[in-house]
Amino acid sequence: MLGTQEAGIASVVATMTGGRQREVGIIGYDGMTGVAVILGQDSSPNETYIQVASNGWSLPVENLRSMMAKSRSLRE
Fold first, then answer.
1. What was the pLDDT predicted at 19?
2. How far apart are CA 55 and CA 5, in angstroms?
3. Alpha-carbon separation of residue 74 from 39, 64, 69 (angstroms)
4. What would you report as the CA-atom Rg of the chain, rounded to the nearest whole angstrom?
5. How far apart are CA 36 and CA 12, in angstroms?
6. Which of 20, 37, 40, 43 could bridge to 16 as Cys pair (CB 3.0-4.6 Å)?
7. Taking the CA of residue 34 as centre, how many other CA atoms within 13 Å lie in the half-sphere pointing to its CB?
């Protein structure tokens, strides 16, 4: 059974040439944002907006990168 902290929905939005925005992804309780940062970028090229409010989890990218360096299963 899911707790309330794991029930929100977020939209990932890309800004196109000319400033128009398009939704490029939807993230539920089992997903995450910031994949570009995990892959080595300094920031994400997209914006993330919460569409269905709930509680979420936040992890500093430095902590995640450190753990990924130590854990093969997490890297995979």
1. 92
2. 4
3. 13, 9, 9
4. 14
5. 12
6. 20
7. 13
